[in-house]
Amino acid sequence: DARVTQTPRHKVTEMGQEVTMRCQPILGHNTVFWYRQTMMQGLELLAYFRNRAPLDDSGMPKDRFSAEMPDATLATLKIQPSEPRDSAVYFCASGLGSQETQYFGPGTRLLVL
Amino acid sequence: GENVEQHPSTLSVQEGDSAVIKCTYSDSASNYFPWYKQELGKGPQLIIDIRSNVGEKKDQRIAVTLNKTAKHFSLHITETQPEDSAVYFCAASIGTDFNKFYFGSGTKLNVKP
How confident is the model over A2-40, as pLDDT tens digits? Predict the structure, then answer.
């Protein structure tokens, strides 16, 4: 049963600390997305990659957020320094570049105190 | 206004009844419209989608209709079951970029046994 995995599932940290979230896309998928979900803003696309190259990161605050794909099986989203307003659920999704369907992971619930 | 508006925000139906969720969009270039189901503590899961060259699509108890002229699309669930209880999101592609979506604000569906 192929699925997107994310770690950690929950993270509580203090303002100013670095947060790293990891995602393993479905094997064979070449497109990876990072979303943020909050009650106020709903689902927002932060960035996405195809074949490990960033295609669009216009939704991501550049000063503190960074996204990378060190290899085809790992995507990371980092926040440094974290702020209370970053508290949200962060979802990773993956898909095949030629198709629209995106498969979401279970999310990382982040709380910044 | 919002790029995708979704109504209602909450919907309560009796088991066995039908449920209808409606979305309107503003980008006339949108050509792909997925619907996602999100259960508590999980990531969104694609349940059905429709492309702009089709007016209706059905998959067992779930159907989606699209009216491109009026720029609205709807999700229909028939013979609802308690396990249909979840939050449902509609989405519309941003122009013809099928990897980027405007998401609706979500509908919390409660199916009472």
Answer: 899 999 999 999 999 999 999 999 999 999 999 999 988
Q: Tell me the per-residue pLDDT of A59-90, one tens digit each, with 9 for 90 and over.
A: 898 899 999 999 999 999 999 999 999 999 99
Which stretch of DSSP H or E encloses residue A96?
A: none
Task: Please name every residue paired with A74 in a beta bridge, in sequence order, or none if there are none.
Answer: A71
Distance from C-alpha of B55 to C-alpha of B67, rounded to nearest angstrom: 7
Are A5 and A61 contacting, i.e. CB atoms less than 8 angstroms apart?
Answer: no
- What is the Cα–Cα distance from A13 to A16, expressed in whole angstroms? 9
Can you say how many angstroms the Cα of residue B70 is from the centroid of all Cα atoms in its chain?
16
B99 to chain A, any CB pair closer than 8 A? The answer is: yes
The closest of B59, B58, B61, B66 to B93, measured between CA atoms, is B66
Tokens (6 digits) for B61: 């108890």
Please list the rounded mean pLDDT of every run of 10 residues in chain B (113 residues).
Answer: 87 97 94 94 93 90 95 97 97 83 94 95
Question: By the 8 A CB rule, do A94 and A31 touch?
Answer: yes
Instruction: Answer whether B101 sits within 8 Å of A45, measured CB to CB.
Output: yes
Q: Which of B94, B99, B102, B105 to mutate to test the interface with A (most CBs of A within 10 A)?
A: B99
* A14 contacts: CB under 8 Å, gap ≥ 6: A82, A112, A113
